[in-house]
Amino acid sequence: MSSRGVLARLLRHPWLIQAIVAAPLLGLAAWQINLGHVAQSFRDARYGWLLFALAIYVASRIVHALEWQITLNKVGRAPFLGLFGALLIGTLVNAVIPAGAGDVVKIQVVANRYGLPRAGLVAGRGAEAVVNSMILMIFILVSFALPGVGFASPNLLWLLAAAAALAFIAAVAASRLLPDTLPRWPLLTRLPRRLYDALEHQWPRLHEGFEVIRRPRLLVVALVLNLVGWAIDIVIYWSYGQAFNLQLPFAAYLSVTVIVALITVFPITFGNIGTFELAIVGVLALHGIASDDALAYAAGTHIFSTVFNISLGLLAMWSMGVQPRDVFRLRTRAPVEAEKPPAPDGR
After folding, report:
1. Helix-then-strand count for the chain, H and E
2. How far apart are CA 200 and CA 146, in angstroms?
3. Which of 225, 218, 227, 229 has its CA nearest to residue 71?
4. How far apart, in Å, are the Cα atoms of 263 and each of 6, 90, 110, 269, 338?
5. Among candidates 94, 90, 93, 92, which has minimal Cα distance to 109?
6. How many degrees, rounded to 5, is the angle at CA 295 between CA 293 and CA 297?
7. Which residues have CB under 8 Å from 67's CB, separation 6+?
8. Rounded to the nearest 10 degrees, how much is the dihedral formed by the CA atoms of 161, 166, 169, 170?
9. Radius of gyration, alpha carbons of the chain
10. What integer pLDDT is reported at residue 33 of this predicted model?
């Protein structure tokens, strides 16, 4: 096969590229670290802490589902348990399929079951990302005051923080300034007619999806819930540290949480295999943790988090009666327990 054919094959299957990237990273880790010591760390682990981590993880998903429900304030109403289940199913898909497919699945499940418009759900997901980027910026800035800031280039962290702040400000300004119907800008009117008509039809739904960052009260609630979610994530990584007998101050897990968030936002390998472990080993090295113990912690955290995600996602699919073929189905069936928020005048 020619080099052009190989490249075309890789582009059609991005997971192959991710696997190629992950393989040398895992090989590097295996070469530099005593795997026997890593295995001993697993034998000595206090697995009772994993049950605590699981309980805290479920709490974090509940907070995230509540934040999602608030984000969809104007898009439409779906039962909280339905959103919670869709979130778990989406997280399951993210654990086994690359490229953030879980976000698509969450939208599909909610749109198919409860009749909410996909355009509004996509916009709501964008609003969530804007809120999350603001909290991430805050935690990046806080991490400068704590040991372990060297887990990445300070200049890079400042750049990310500045980009997050600018994106947040721009999104808030756009959500308040843009009209609720498609503006007749010259650039838009030059679009092909079918594309223009589709955009004109979906624009109000996109506008509704950003309601959470347009209304100050909702924005504050979303920011607080996002902040609580981050705090819970720190507790989760601390719980794993207790399970693997790491002697670290609680504040050190802020650095772990930030680096995991950055890896999740910018995935390089399938399931973040290799990059997740190497990044955490690098952070923990700054706190004096031996590489063998750090890899045991990183691998254990990755493995058990994946097991939690898959198990909870399968449980959610069973309880909601969602079949694998339903996940990417584009056809929307009759809404279940969904209703559109009443108009301000009560109609």
Report:
1. 15, 0
2. 49
3. 218
4. 28, 18, 27, 10, 35
5. 90
6. 70
7. 128, 131, 222, 225, 226, 229
8. -150
9. 22
10. 55
Question: Is residue 315 classed exposed, middle or buried when 0-12, 13-18 and 19+ CB atoms within 10 A define those classes?
Answer: middle
Cβ(44)–Cβ(289) under 8 Å? no
Please, are residues 226 and 67 in contact by the beta-carbon 8 Å criterion?
yes
**Beta carbons within 10 angstroms of residue 201's beta carbon:** 11
Q: Assess if residue 28 is contained within a domain.
A: no
**How far is Cα 202 from Cα 181, in angstroms, rounded to an integer?**
9
pLDDT level of residue 264 (50, 70, 90 thresholds): confident
User: What letter does residue 217 receive in the DSSP assignment?
Assistant: H
Of the candidates 31, 114, 33, 99, the one whose C-alpha atom is nearest the C-alpha of residue 68 is 114
Please tell me what DSSP assigns to residue 302. H
> What tokens does 60 get?
């974090």
Residue 78 DSSP label = -
CA dist 250 and 255 (Å) reads: 10
80 found inside a domain = yes
- Look at the chain and report how many structural domains it folds into: 1
**Whole-structure pTM value:** 0.78
Contact (CB, 8 A) for 78 and 72: yes
The position carrying tokens 């880790």 is 29
Instruction: List the structure tokens of 203.
Output: 């624009």
Domain around 239: 45-326
User: Mean pLDDT across the stretch 9-18?
Assistant: 46
- Give the tens place of pLDDT for each residue, 220-248: 999 999 999 999 999 999 999 999 888 88
- Dump the DSSP string for 130-186: HHHHHHHHHHHHHHTTSTTGGGS-HHHHHHHHHHHHHHHHHHHHHHHHS-SS----H
Rounded-to-integer distance, Cα 318 and Cα 315, Å? 5
Q: Which two tokens stand for residue 333?
A: 């069936």
The answer to whether residue 1 sits within a structural domain is no
Domain contains 241: yes
In the predicted model, is pLDDT for residue 161 greater than 90?
A: no
Beta bridge partners of 77: 339
Structure tokens at 180: 């609720």
Tens digits of residue pLDDT in 53-90? 999 999 999 999 999 999 998 898 899 999 999 999 99
Contact 237, 301 (CB under 8 A): yes
